[in-house]
Amino acid sequence: MCDFSTAAMSGQFDIENGAWWDEQLEKTGIQASMLPTPKRTGTYVGVTTTDAEYLTGLPPGISFSLGALDHHAAAIGAGISSNGYLCESTGTVLSCVDETDCYIPRQGVFVAPGLHPGRYFRMMFDDNGATSLEWYQKNYAPEYSIQELLEMAAQVVPGCEGLTAFPCADRYPELSGFDIDNRNCYGHGHFIRALLESTARSLHSIVTAMHKDRPVKGIVSSGGGSRSKLWVAIKSDLINVPFFIPECTELACFGAAMIGNRDAGYPRVSIAKNIRT
């Protein structure tokens, strides 16, 4: 058994009908009998057994429900069930997730069934995440922590006095991933802020691509990038929408707990208490 969101990532899944896509399976020579049975995210499976206790240390009798892709779970934890809100994550990669009641395939946008029937979640990725920040610190400022470098970046004016970082600057030889007029004019703070602004521009592109049909009301920030108020502020200023920082720093775990909570008989969690501006 597998959940719909994981099945949809295979490219072999009929998203609208919630079943394996026979036409595509025939093209790839895969039989549906070889694959696990797909079920909606949050489907109650049963309870843990004594085998689970041996394998994981969990006691038997604990309710078990199908989970979701990590970014989808984070979006559920963020409470973005209303149209117009998104959940962005800035980590190893940059991702953005929203939810809609319309199934409209679009190139470059991953779509899968949502937590509830008639709902879908959409997701886009970009490689221009936090990796460049770690790369710069490791190779050019190892004597400073990431936090210290972010504090330096906070002292630099927007635009970095002309310094620009290309997307995924870490993939270029040495510092050629930056548009540099005069290396002697820039300190570590300039390079770090340039990387933060580069990621913000990539996020802006994702948000624009995903929300061509309606305005963005707000974005919940997650992942390692959400721990930097400077980074969140740069994104908010560029995209010109309010950003929200969750009090819970592990939204995917929080969302997974909420999914399991649906069938465990516990009161629903209030998302409003989880978010601060």
Q: How would you sum up the major sheet? A: 7 strands, mixed
**Head-to-tail CA distance between termini:** 39 Å
What would the principal axes of the Cα set say about the shape?
elongated
Rounded mean pLDDT score: 87
| CATH homologous superfamily caption of the domain at 69-251 and 268-277 | ATPase, nucleotide binding domain
Low-confidence stretches: 266-277
Order of strands, main sheet, comes to: 9-10-8-7-13-14-15
Order of helices and strands: EHEEHEEHEHEEEEHHEEHEHEHE
The secondary-structure class comes to alpha+beta
The CATH architecture term of the domain at 69-251 and 268-277 is 2-Layer Sandwich
For the CA atoms, what is the radius of gyration? 21 Å
Q: Which range does the strand content fall in? A: 15-25%
Commentary on this structure:
- This protein is an alpha+beta fold.
- Helix content is 33%, strand content 19%.
- The protein has a domain at 69-251 and 268-277: ATPase, nucleotide binding domain (Nucleotidyltransferase, domain 5).
- It has helices at residues 4-8, 22-28, 50-56, 70-78, 131-140, 146-153, 188-210, 229-239, 251-261, and strands spanning 2-3, 13-14, 19-20, 38-39, 44-47, 63-65, 85-90, 94-100, 110-113, 120-126, 164-165, 178-179, 218-222, 243-246, 275-276.
- The strands form 5 sheets. A 7-stranded mixed β-sheet has the order 9-10-8-7-13-14-15, sandwiched between helices. Strands 1-4 form a two-stranded parallel ribbon.
- Helix 6 (146-153) crosses helix 7 (188-210).
- Residues 266-277 have low confidence and may be disordered.
